[in-house]
């Protein structure tokens, strides 16, 4: 499958991953190999991963943002170089045609459906809805309301604004700040904080479940991201929430 990607996005991804000292160009992209890309990603991941904020003496929030940009840049470039027939859409500036004075455009009526494609790099789902219950983010994607990249960004935003398990445990008196530092020092790179705390005996299995439930209960709703970024309106969100509820209800009835 051929993937078309915008030149600006690819060059920005190169600068994010390899640094401003490299000459990011079309020639650089054409000669870029997966091995070199993965080496650069591992290096940048070690420099920006939020789990190393205490070691590096930097703010976790800032490192989290940097790491997300590094990861997104890696995924963008990896998608590009894995294609056998690479194609780059060059960035061009189109002049806007001025309307004639004699004709006035009438305001468009409000739409129930969301706006269509807004970027050539976005992947929109066009098939049928999966025959299973869906969360609202999944339903929006499978309905064609949002792209895959928008869904991933929304989930990353929700994770960023989600209260940390460690802070919740401290608030409940389950562990201390010293325990958090100790758990972070024992946590492997891809291990979640709660899983490490459970493995090292700092919390029980019941406490782990309770903390995860509390975290999900007070996290920012995913739909808030789409409204804040003006991707969907409140009316459109309400429309899809009703459709999602009906979809899941029909599936639950079929199971019975």
User: Going across the major beta sheet, what is the strand order?
Assistant: 1-2
- The average pLDDT is 79
Q: How far is it from the N-terminal to the C-terminal residue, by CA?
A: 40 Å
Unreliable sequence segments: 91-97, 108-118
- List the domain count as a whole number: 2
The number of distinct helices, counting runs of at least 4 residues, comes to: 13
Proportion of residues in extended strands: under 5%
Along the chain, the helix and strand elements come as EHHHHHEHHHHHHHH
Structural class by SSE content: mainly alpha
Largest sheet entry: 2 strands, parallel
**Rg calc:** 23 Å
Strands, total number? 2
What would you say this structure looks like, in words?
With 256 residues, the chain is mainly α. It folds into two domains: 4-89, Helix Hairpins; 136-255, no CATH class. 57% of the residues lie in helices and 2% in strands. It has a two-stranded parallel ribbon. The longest helix has 22 residues, at 60-81. The two termini are 40 Å apart. Residues 91-97 and 108-118 have low confidence and may be disordered.
Record the SSE blueprint:
Blueprint: E1 4-6, H1 7-18, H2 26-31, H3 34-48, H4 53-56, H5 60-81, E2 87-89, H6 136-142, H7 148-160, H8 165-171, H9 177-186, H10 193-199, H11 205-218, H12 222-228, H13 234-255
Parallel strand pairs: 1-2
